[in-house]
UniProtKB/TrEMBL annotation:
Substrate binds at H200, E209, E336, D361, S413, Q414, R415, S416, K437. This is phosphopyruvate hydratase. One of its GO terms (molecular function) is magnesium ion binding. The active site is at D252, K386. Residues 47-176 form the Enolase N-terminal domain. It comes from Lactuca virosa. GO terms for biological process: glycolytic process. Its EC number is 4.2.1.11. Keywords: Glycolysis, Lyase, Magnesium, Metal-binding.
Length: 474
């Protein structure tokens, strides 16, 4: 084939001429670089290679990382995991070999990506997120992604989402917004974990988290300042009352003093807030995680105490009275999982009181069928979205749409086993969720999300809107 035939076959003469004309119009000081970039953008991108590996999450437990390649470059994603996993969520594939990582290895999921998923999606257009995710779902053929593993599918799905954004030459949050049909200039209110308890910390506090919401900030960057300052004031308060050993942290980075009662923890947080001067700008959210200490129809508030007397069992009705009193005495605006995951009647009754936002986590497990039931029965009024419980970006977008159509709040959430992947930040902006829960304002895997939101706010500029007091209905 002659040079001219080659040029004609690939219409290169026309493409080069277009690139040169574009460089002239742009008056670029470096025409070679401009023409090179212009030509790269002119070539439709496809997925050329997918490579997965096993890495460790923030707890030192294996998880999946994926490198997805197109002619635009390499795009990496890693997935979080929770402990324990729930019966209604997508299945996280683990090896089960107790001699390696105590059975927690993910080499099977990695192998599924490298051998099966890779073959199915190489050659696909990364812009077509729905088609990529559907190809993996069809390949798996199980309801809860138990064949390939939700951890395998999600890692590829997120990496493909990043590749799609690059192909369109837009920020990741904007690509997600376009996939979902929503705006992309809304910055969420962060729910900063200040005190950790429950199964996320080694103290005797039954509930899992006490958080603050900087609803009075004007910008996300200011919200970060409020969260950081309050966290450090709380650290000082705890050190004064319990000594330096009280400043140990839980899995989410929250401080974990050896306290036992709800009020003791809330009083510590209120004292820290008082020292900041942000009294009117901070609200409180709590994650009860009541399933962890539900025994039959009773709730054991001493389930972690080695000296428990057996006298601190509460009925569902008792718990409602406790929540009503706490919401009366403290600026609590959100309660997550106030009852056991199967205690639909109590959560419906409590939600109907309209006292605060009632967030479904274990109750819903981001499962569309559970969300649909909860909407129909008015069982709660906010979704805690854990993307790995759903298993793909497309399905996460769909369940958020379902929640918003039901006039619910939406909280994008981390897991106890996190990585330094910042995808959740872009997802929260792209879907306009209004709330994000990424842990304490400390520890790298938590700050990866918060710091990315600072960058996004800066990039959006004057068009950025921090939801503030409108956090429920952004």
């Amino acid at each position: 084939m002659s040079v001219q035939d080659y040029l004609d076959k690939h219409t290169l003469s026309r493409k080069i001429e277009d690139a040169v004309n574009a460089a002239v119009r742009a008056k670029t000081p470096d025409p070679v670089l401009f023409i090179s970039n212009h030509m790269r953008k002119a070539v439709p991108s496809v997925i050329t290679k997918v490579k997965a590996r096993q890495i460790l999450d923030s707890r030192g437990i294996p998880t999946v990382e994926v490198d997805l390649y197109t002619n635009k470059g390499m795009f990496r994603a890693s997935v979080p995991s929770g402990a324990p996993t729930g019966m209604y969520e997508a299945i996280e594939l683990r090896d089960g070999d107790k001699s390696t990582y105590l059975g927690n290895g993910v080499s099977k999921a990695v192998k599924n990506i490298n051998e099966k998923i890779s073959e199915a999606i190489v050659g696909m257009d990364p812009i077509l997120q729905n088609q990529i995710d559907q190809a993996m779902i069809d390949l798996d053929k199980t309801e809860k992604k138990g064949e390939l593993g939700a951890n395998a599918i999600l890692a590829v799905s997120i990496a493909a989402c990043r590749a799609g954004a690059a192909e369109k030459d837009v920020p990741l949050y904007k690509h997600i917004a376009e996939l979902s049909g929503r705006g992309s200039n809304v910055l969420p209110v962060p729910a900063f974990t200040l005190i950790s308890g429950g199964k996320h910390a080694g103290n005797n506090l039954a509930i899992r988290e006490i958080m603050i919401l900087p609803v009075g900030a004007q910008r996300f960057e200011e919200a970060m300042q409020m969260g950081s300052e309050t966290y450090h004031h709380l650290k000082a308060v705890i050190a004064e009352k319990y000594g330096a050993h009280g400043c140990n942290v839980g899995e989410d980075g929250g401080l974990a003093p050896d306290i036992t009662s709800f009020r003791e923890g809330l009083d510590l947080v209120m004292e820290a807030i008082g020292r900041t001067g942000y009294i009117d700008k901070l609200k409180i959210a709590v994650d009860i995680a009541a399933t962890d200490f539900c025994i039959g129809s009773k709730y054991d508030l001493d389930f972690k105490s080695p000296r428990k007397s057996g006298q601190n069992f509460k009925s569902g009705e008792d718990m409602i009275e406790i929540y009503k009193e706490l919401c009366r005495d403290y600026p609590i605006v959100s309660i997550e999982d106030p009852f056991d995951k199967e205690d639909w009647e109590q959560v419906k009754y409590f939600s109907g009181l309209g006292i605060c936002q009632v967030v479904g986590d274990d109750l819903l497990m981001s499962n569309p069928k559970r969300v649909e039931r909860a909407i129909q029965e008015h069982a709660c009024n906010a979704l805690l979205l854990k993307v790995n419980q759903v298993g793909s970006v497309t399905e996460a977008i769909e369940v958020v749409k379902m929640a918003k159509d039901g006039n619910w709040g939406v909280v994008i959430s981390q897991r106890s086993g996190e990585t330094d992947d910042s995808f959740l930040a872009d997802l929260s902006v792209g879907l306009g969720t209004g709330q994000i829960k990424a842990g304490a304002p400390c520890r790298g895997e938590r700050l990866a999300k918060y710091n990315q939101l600072i960058r996004i706010e800066e990039e959006i500029g004057d068009q950025a809107r921090y939801v503030g007091d409108d956090w429920r209905h952004s």
